[in-house]
Amino acid sequence: xxxxxxxxxxxxxxxxxxxxxxxxxxxxxxxxxxxxxxxxxxxxxxxxxxxxxxxxxxxxxxxxxxxxxxxxxxxxxxxxxxxxxxxxxxxxxxxxxxxxxxxxxxxxxxxxxxxxxxxxxxxxxxxxxxxxxxxxxxxxxxxxxxxxxxxxxxxxxxxxxxxxxxxxxxxxxxxxxxxxxxxxxxxxxxxxxxxxxxxxxxxxxxxxxxxxxxxxxxxxxxxxx
Amino acid sequence: xxxxxxxxxxxxxxxxxxxxxxxxxxxxxxxxxxxxxxxxxxxxxxxxxxxxxxxxxxxxxxxxxxxxxxxxxxxxxxxxxxxxxxxxxxxxxxxxxxxxxxxxxxxxxxxxxxxxxxxxxxxxxxxxxxxxxxxxxxxxxxxxxxxxxxxxxxxxxxxxxxxxxxxxxxxxxxxxxxxxxxxxxxxxxxxxxxxxxxxxxxxxxxxxxxxxxxxxxxxxxxxxx
DNA sequence: CCCTGAAATTTTGTATACAAATTATTGCTT
DNA sequence: AAGCAATAATTTGTATACAAAATTTCAGGG
Lengths: 225, 225
Hints:
The structure is a homodimer of 225-residue chains.
Chain A: H1 3-17, E1 25-26, H2 28-35, H3 39-52, E2 55-58, E3 62-65, H4 73-94, H5 97-115, H6 121-139, H7 142-159, H8 166-184, H9 188-215
Antiparallel strand pairs in A: 1-3, 2-3
Chain A binds a DNA duplex (30 and 30 nucleotides) through α3.
């Protein structure tokens, strides 16, 4: 594997995990020594992070890890609604119905398990990924797909800011089942409606979680000094 | 100015102008000597072109200038409809009405001039840019804006593939006036409808132009040997 | 004549040295 | 003590040398 790929993946996961905290500057030599490669591949990795939106040029201070805050969540969701609805509508027109029916079934099962309070969260998110992948494939639009990828990394970062309510998770599983079913029905407008509804609920849940965390004083997004 | 910025702008415009033809490989040393800088800034410029979608990694052959073809136009427009409609709707909800009214007036004038067959095309496109900029500003969504920028560079490249019919241009100016008016009216759904209509017409015009050019044997997208 | 394979050449990937720019620090002056 | 200036120290930007990978070319055998 190329050193620049290694550096990219390493830095990327460090940012995602929070090892590199938002707002902290990424110093080339520091990372170069830490990862055991020269500055050249580090620079290439950083430029990829910039285009991912995981790093930002800071005026005079080089590049910093892109800050996250719930203030962005509305902008992010405006874009997300647009793209996810389009993707769902396209998938409804082009997708393989049986594949989405099967996914709908699995989401229904997942919803039941989560409602019983014994769900594995990671497993559930993996299922969501499967649905996303199926939709991407069915939508068959490489430009749309490209944008979705970068949007999702932003959403993943945001998601970690507020702990998701387990009750909400079961509800979300139901909504995903609904989306899959609507796509399987090949009705583009219906698929779009289900998606729009789901995203509205998701945003509302985020707002609620944030409010409750703020209340308990748990809402802190530290940037390194 | 940094050498990498110079290299980026130079390569970018070379690709846009067609000096570097689609499909041709971008050889680092070659460009390095041509532009009088070392390979390092060239590599950085190339990585920016990659994230712009103006260059593509080619398996084993390094990177090539991204090919263009009208086959992409449908995928591109699917995304464009989604984004432009969202932007128009947001702008209707947030924008300064008088600013869009003024733009609508100018488009009406432009339409009259173009219909009379004495319009300056570059001037017209500049006006379109102004509208786009106004919408971007009013939509006030940095994530959406970012995607629009890269989408528009793709559309600009595609546009050059088929000569636009002057009659269509006057019609398009009317449609832009309509869009501006709808945004000024602060009716999000209406703004979206006007945008959707315009894009449907634009796509149709592209198809027609392509068909007529193909007929006349003018439809050639050469890749260098 | 084509296919296989090995050498040669070209091209990309990485390391490092040096230059330029920017920030931090220190000392001086008011 | 505060502000400014000059200098020192970090940090990024660029060039270049070297290493590795891959493609092409050429030669030999089937």
